[in-house]
Specification:
Shape: globular
Number of helices: 5
Radius of gyration: 16 Å
Helix content: 25-40%
CATH superfamily: tt1808, chain A
């Protein structure tokens, strides 16, 4: 098994990870944006080892958001996207560490991504970083105990935080 395959195996999601990913896809704005899940991004132009990542050619964020409307060419698919998204969303899985994802953010910003979100299911929290706020160690933190929405000022995106984590008084099924 290659290092990249081991890395991908280690990054496996969970029930909460999958649930929140699906919720985000439904809640993110589609007007003027295209939402992609698990899209491989070509990172071969940068040495990822300089960020401490054991990735050579591709990285696969949980969600990528591109500006503009994508028209698929069903006859010619793209395996690794060379154009970087405007927004990358990573959902922390039970096997990942917080600092591990923040290192990936540094790489995403070096590749030209505008904004990165870290979803922390166990805390019911979303951390929103731009390249500038990341460098200044001043990312914005939103959690369901104190906030009603996630706000990305750089991209002008607002999402109802309670809906991301489906925290409402209705009775829901537990797994």
């Amino acid at each position: 098994m290659t290092n990249e395959a081991k890395y991908e195996e280690y990054q496996m999601g969970s029930l909460n990870h999958s649930f929140i990913q699906a919720r985000l896809v439904r809640l993110l704005p589609e007007d003027g944006f295209t939402i992609m899940t698990e899209l491989s991004l070509d990172v071969s132009q940068i040495d990822m080892k300089s960020f401490g990542l054991k990735i050579k050619e591709e990285i696969k964020p949980d969600i990528s958001l591109y500006k503009g409307d994508y028209e698929p060419n069903l006859y010619e698919d793209v395996v690794k996207m060379s154009e970087m998204p405007t927004l990358v969303i990573e959902i922390l899985s039970p096997t990942q560490g917080f600092s591990e994802v923040l290192v990936k953010f540094k790489a995403y910003f070096a590749l030209g991504v505008t904004s990165c979100w870290l979803i922390t299911p166990t805390l019911g929290a979303v951390t929103v970083c731009s390249a500038e706020s990341y460098e200044a160690q001043n990312c914005k933190f939103f959690d369901i105990a104190h906030d009603t929405e996630v706000v990305d000022d750089v991209l002008d995106i607002r999402l109802p935080l309670q809906e991301v984590f489906r925290k409402n008084p209705k009775k829901t099924t537990e797994y």
